[in-house]
Here is the input.
Amino acid sequence: NKLILLRHGQSIWNYENRFTGCKDVPLTAKGVNEAIKAGDIMAKNKIFIDIVFTSVLQRAYETANHAVKRMNLQHLWNNNNLIMTKHESLNERDYGDLVGLNKQETADKFGEEQVHLWRRSFETSPPNGESLKDVLIRVEPFFRKNIASELTKNKNVLIAAHGNSLRA
Here is the structure.
């Protein structure tokens, strides 16, 4: 069986180089095309999916929707709606006070090293936000209870989520 981790396509705030975190922003046209391409790659490689999990943020579930639609998997559709489990445990990390700020302007203000630490450190969180460790604490119980159990049943699982929640 397979576990497929799919980061969402480009969102409007990715395009604008802003910290997005838990802000619910849609995909750009490029993001939709990235999701479609992911579906084409999975279809070409004959990857079959039994179950889909996503965060509750539209950029993740829209990515899953576009990708799976390209795979022609009728068992995952009900009345033209993708059957998926959406859960906030899979949401992107909360960037706290950085949400909405331009990443380059933030680096200019606080320094490249500090912003890199906030973004890539395991334990250091941005002001009033989550560290990757915090995200792991949020994601792991959901993964163990809901996703790992499907994998032990030999199901192929697709998780469409975010860079940090997938990393965790």
